[in-house]
Design brief:
The chain is of the alpha/beta class and about 250 residues long. Helices cover about 35% and strands about 25% of the residues. It has a single domain (about 5-240), classed as Rossmann fold (3-Layer(aba) Sandwich). Helix 1 crosses helix 5 (about 190-205) and helix 2 crosses helix 4 (about 160-170).
């Protein structure tokens, strides 16, 4: 990495796949991406491939199974060829450039396309779980259509860390798709995460994920994710704009 950067990738495992699909699961509106990618990572038994560290990330100690771990981690597997990017804490605005740089410089050789997930406030209960797609290339646009995913017809924009990553991929000619999911505007939304897995990710990536527990354990998932949601709200207030702001 360039000396001027304070971001680094620390590899902790091996990844034999050469043409993976990267699925982003960073905290955002409704925590849809986080919940969906947690489910995918756990159910496919993806192994930790490495972690991303930056002085711009919040100074938080994350832990699981009695061990401290990095807050931003990359997992991977070969059945199918999947990589996931996840974080236990919201990514602050001043870390967007670092994270994008690390993904493009350290991870891009390991994946052939990236899929980004962004929650957007649902205007009604019936609208929750609706998914529309946007692509950076004509080939991925066709992939979205073939998977039965409705394409975004109106103009719009997505901010926050997901918007920054999508734009970085677009500028670097890295094939990427953005899935916009309507979610509960107030709480973590496991039902919206279930919807994006079943209606978009499964046909797009061609894997099978059992999402039953997302509905069965909705209250427990909401409780577990509530602290992250509160941190996200604080981050939004500090930035004086929604992390997924500008979506319309």
């Amino acid at each position: 990495m360039p000396d001027s950067s304070n971001v680094s990738f620390h590899r902790s495992g091996e990844l034999d796949a050469e043409s993976s699909t990267l699925i982003e699961g960073l905290p955002g509106h409704g925590l849809v991406a986080s919940i969906a990618v947690d489910q995918i990572t756990d159910q496919l038994g993806l192994e930790e491939y490495g972690s991303i560290r930056s002085d711009s990330f919040p100074p938080v100690a994350s832990f699981t199974d009695g061990m401290v771990q990095d807050t931003v981690r990359v997992h991977g597997g070969t059945d199918p060829d999947i990589m996931t990017l996840k974080s236990d804490v919201p990514i602050p605005e001043d870390a967007f450039a670092d994270l994008s740089q690390c993904v493009l410089e350290e991870l891009v050789d390991n994946f052939s396309r990236a899929i980004f997930l962004a929650g957007a406030p649902a205007q009604s209960e019936e609208q929750q779980g609706d998914v529309i797609g946007v692509a950076t290339t004509e080939t991925l646009k066709t992939d979205l259509e073939d998977a039965g995913i409705e394409l975004a017809e109106d103009s719009g924009a997505v901010g926050g860390v997901t918007g920054a990553l999508v734009n970085a991929c677009y500028q670097a000619d890295v094939p990427a798709a953005l899935l916009l999911v309507r979610a509960d505007p107030r709480l973590p939304d496991p039902a919206a995460a279930q919807s994006v897995i079943e209606t978009a990710l499964e046909p797009l990536v061609e894997f099978d994920i059992d999402t039953t527990e997302l509905r069965e354990q909705a209250e427990e998932i909401q409780r577990q994710k509530q602290q992250v949601a509160q941190q996200l709200q604080q981050t939004q207030e500090q930035q004086d704009e929604p992390v997924r702001g500008m979506f319309r």
